[in-house]
Amino acid sequence: MRTALIACGLAALVHMIPLFLPRNTPEQELAIARVTAEVPNRLRLLKPLKEHPKITGAELREAAELLLEGAPAEAQEFVEEAERREPGSVETQLLRARICRAERMERCVRESFEQAVRLAPADTRPDLLWADMREQDGDLEAAAEAVDRARKKAPGELALHLRYSRLLSAVGRPREAEAVLQALAPRLPADQLLVELGLLRAREGRADEARAFFAQAVEKSPQSAVAHYHLGAAHFQLGNLDAAEEELLTADRLNVADPRPLAALCAMQVKAGRRDAARVTKMDLQRRFQGQAELIRDACRMDP
């Protein structure tokens, strides 16, 4: 016991050494702030940095990021100093937009975006951050418009076209969404295109057609965990639990690092009243994905 206590004490002492070493660079203070949990404690560490002669705009922005959740007004001060030291930074304007949103200052948010666009009219980041914010607010039409602007600036980015298609589908414009997908056919792998078309049909409530697309995707690419996952979900929606279980277990086998197939299986088993099977699946999830407690709890929740 004495040996164990001594070892623990030495370990704690080693971890505390950096706190007592001379610190005269922003990097050292930021490194400590990153591992400091409480925002007030971070603020005490970071506040002197605002006046530090060696600090850069990037370091000021990182300090603001560390204070954004919990101390947005102080984060704003760091952003202002970053702009003073490095004027003309798109990154500073986008961070300001996020801080202003946290403080519910909508005019400031818009002004920050407008400034970011003026500074870098070809940059997609302002459009994508605007889309994220509008999507969080439930304004999917505005999100779709922002993603459309971004994809026109970067036509080679497939992810932007796919996101635009999904947003069009979400706002009830399925024909336009499908046209975007079909235009990607020469550039998308066949199985991925089929999965996207299946998801489009699923969002329209056309479950049989969705399953057919997912089945084609599996046929094209039997090793695609994504295709098996969505085919399993489609089978369940159509009432075929046995086929759903088979597909989800295949998806899990093909990608053992992804907890979603087993989580979906657990939810399906609970919903179907197969509680014993759900308990087994839950134990497997807990054994393999210890860091996903919330996901497992939500998927395997059983009413008392």
DSSP E strands, number? 0
Helix content: over 70%
Biggest sheet overview: none
What is the overall number of helices?
A: 18
Kindly list the characteristics that best describe this protein.
0% strand; 18 helices; single chain; Serine Threonine Protein Phosphatase 5, Tetratricopeptide repeat; mainly alpha; 304 residues
Explain this structure:
- With 304 residues, the chain is an all-alpha fold.
- Among the domains are: 24-83 and 91-120; 122-188, Alpha Horseshoe (Serine Threonine Protein Phosphatase 5, Tetratricopeptide repeat).
- Helices cover 74% and strands 0% of the residues.
- Helix 5 runs antiparallel to helix 6 (90-102) and helix 11 packs antiparallel against helix 12 (190-203).
- The protein is globular.
- The relative contact order is 0.04.
Give the SSE map.
Blueprint: H1 2-20, H2 26-34, H3 39-46, H4 57-68, H5 72-85, H6 90-102, H7 106-119, H8 125-136, H9 140-153, H10 158-170, H11 174-183, H12 190-203, H13 207-220, H14 225-237, H15 241-254, H16 260-271, H17 275-288, H18 293-299
